[in-house]
Amino acid sequence: MSVELNNESGIEADEQGLATLATWVLAELRIHPQAELSIVLVDEETMAAYHVKYMDLPGPTDVLSFPMDELRIPEPDEPEPEGLLGDIVLAPAVTARQAAENDRTPDQEAEYLLVHGILHLLGYDHATPEEHAEMFGLHDRLMAAYEEHRAGGKGA
User: Fold this and answer.
1) Cα 32 → chain centroid
2) Residues 6+ apart with CB under 8 A from 74
3) Closest Cα to residue 87, out of 73, 114, 66, 71?
4) Number of neighbouring beta carbons within 10 Å of residue 102
5) Which long-range contacts (C-beta less than 8 Å, at least 24 apart) are formed by 149-153?
6) What's the rounded Cα separation, in Å, for the pair 5 and 63?
7) pLDDT-based confidence at residue 154 (cuts at 50, 70, 90)
8) Which of 14, 61, 114, 119 would bridge 124 by S-S if both were Cys, CB 3.0 to 4.6 A apart?
9) What percent of the chain lies above the pLDDT cut of 70?
10) Pseudo-torsion of CA 86, 30, 104, 94, nearest 10°?
């Protein structure tokens, strides 16, 4: 799995931890080991500009996803898809502020949003109640399995 992370935010972040999580999630979801993902950490001003440019919404947001090859999680009998997964942009200053609201540390919030962004790259959305239930159900299972994996268990 090729995960490239660039921290352009000016804020210290657990870059290795985020890259490790992304690699683990993509492997769990059976995305081809040669698929590529880019993660960029940006400052609030840059994120606000992206938010306006790409979503037509004011102010900075916490995470944006930009899919490239529209890869999807394969069915059990399908081969692992390979290609460019896309880009995830995170704003550590925003995630740090909202972490307490979600009863998480700043690093936990960044991890949570990274998985959220990966699922968006893989075609998941939460616009309808059904989509929301599917996306966040998978999200919660992945986060719980990663915590077990990190603690020394086998994961999902």
Assistant:
1) 17
2) 30, 80, 81
3) 66
4) 12
5) 149/24
6) 14
7) low
8) 119
9) 97
10) 0
